[in-house]
Amino acid sequence: MYRVLITIMFFFISAVLTLAEPEIQIYPECFVWRVVDGDTIHCLHHGQDHYIRFRAVDTPEIFFGKNECFSGPARDYLESKIYGKYVKVEIDGREKGGYQRELGYIWYNDEMLNLTLILRGYGVSVVNRFPTVLYNPALFSQAEILAKSQNLGLWGVCKK
């Protein structure tokens, strides 16, 4: 009886630990071949296309015929930074965002672009919509407070 209980407890604890740990995928060298907008890219890793939505940040949307305020500068900034270059991508979780995009963090030259976009005022923190597992959510919220207090990017241009 004792062995059965120990075995059941072992499997239960293993199952709980497996559920608690996020599934982390890392693409150490993903070639950016398309920048869709300020928070979405396509990149190739080992010949496979990855459609990636930046986690924890939301930039103004680009629509056909009607773009949100500061959507152009956000996309242009990202494109100038990483188009045609290799980035590191960290995917933290199994869920996908809208349009079946993987949710991840994008790194270029040791710079987390998700955070940079918020710090420079190209986007806002959305850790409440896309909870982060790998990084402290306060990091993104504080970056937004800083950019907003200095009227950087969209905070100085767009109507509130």
Q: Can you walk me through this structure?
A:
With 160 residues, the chain is an alpha+beta fold. It has one domain: OB fold (Dihydrolipoamide Acetyltransferase, E2P) (Beta Barrel), CATH 2.40.50. Helix content is 34%, strand content 32%. It contains five helices and eight strands. It has helices at 2-20, 71-82, 113-119, 137-149, 154-157; strands at 24-37, 40-45, 48-54, 57-58, 86-96, 102-108, 111-112, 124-125. The strands form two sheets. A five-stranded mixed beta barrel has the order 1-2-3-6-5. The protein has a two-stranded antiparallel ribbon with strand order 4-8. Helix 3 packs parallel to helix 4. The relative contact order is 0.17.
Which terms summarize this structure?
single chain; 160 residues; five-stranded mixed β-barrel; OB fold (Dihydrolipoamide Acetyltransferase, E2P); alpha+beta; two-stranded antiparallel sheet
Task: Give the arrangement of secondary structure elements.
Blueprint (H helix, E strand, L loop, with lengths): L1 H19 L3 E14 L2 E6 L2 E7 L2 E2 L12 H12 L3 E11 L5 E7 L2 E2 H7 L4 E2 L11 H13 L4 H4 L3
Helix pairs in contact: 3-4
CATH architecture: Beta Barrel
Number of helices: 5
Helix content: 25-40%
Taking strands numbered 1, 2, ... along the chain, how are they ordered across the largest sheet?
Answer: 1-2-3-6-5
- pLDDT average, as an integer? 86
Strand content: 25-35%
- Computed structural class: alpha+beta
Could you tell me the CATH topology label.
OB fold (Dihydrolipoamide Acetyltransferase, E2P)
Low-confidence stretches: 1-20
Measured on Cα atoms, how large is the radius of gyration? 19 Å
Shape: globular
Q: Report the sheet with the most strands, covering strand number, pairing sense and barrel closure.
A: 5 strands, mixed, barrel
Number of domains: 1
So what's the CATH class? Mainly Beta
| N to C succession of SSEs | HEEEEHEEEHEHH
